[in-house]
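S.,

Sequence below, as promised.
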Amino acid sequence: MKTLITLSSCLLVAAPPVCEAKPRPYVGHKTTAVSSPAPPASEVRVAMEAARVRPAAEAFANANQVYAYADNALFQVYTSVGKVTDIVLQPGERLVGAGPVAAGDTARWIIGDTESGTGDRKQVHILIKPTLSTLSTNLVVNTDRRTYHIELTALRDTYMACVSWRYPQDELLAVQRRAERIAVQAPLVAGIDPEALEFGYRIDGARVPWRPVRAFDDGHKVFIELPADIGKTDLPPLFLVGGDGKAELVNYRIAGKFLIVDRLFSVAELKLGDRTTQKTVQIKRVGIAKS
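The prediction came back faster than expected:
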């Protein structure tokens, strides 16, 4: 006998649903928001403002604003339409490199340079003129001694006629050198009797950087005083000239700005250079001239 199985007699059982695993937060866990860094522009603004150096009433010498130079400071210079502002560099300082004076806006600012003085006293002047009263730009000046960073602002009714600098580092160095010279000269001064000094010497000859200022003796030695900045030049040999006109090379000692000859003489000559370029300065004893 065959058994008939119908679908209606079968039960279909569905598989249980699969649950997605969800992580549980740890007890006490807190979510901290990550703060975004400050925009670089704000950091730059803060640094630039800290570097700015503005005019001060006590730093004016007549119409000249004298800033104290500092590396990488931003010196503020105020200009006006129809006026020239004169930026004056240190005596002896020279512009160097290709394009030593560079401005951010060369179309609306008139910028030129000129010089005054001669030799070691020659000075560079940078002349500034704006064409509008609402302008601002920056200026970079490269010299053989330093770099100046300047911010230029054009105002309607106010301008700075002249701007220059003093140089604290140079001033400190000058004080140190002066102290060194005094220390070197101290034994010299301590060993001299002022009452015994004889200043009856005449200086003749070439106008050269090493030309002596004066000469004197203490009855035993001759002291030849050279210019204060003699350290920048070569020193010439000294020759004593006898009654027969013959020159004898003689040694001397150096103490500060003095050449010390350990004997008296009537005529001596300092000579420097070859036969075609030789320069001579004569030191001659001419009589008694007490201090």
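Residues 1-14 have pLDDT under 50 and may be disordered.

Coffee later?
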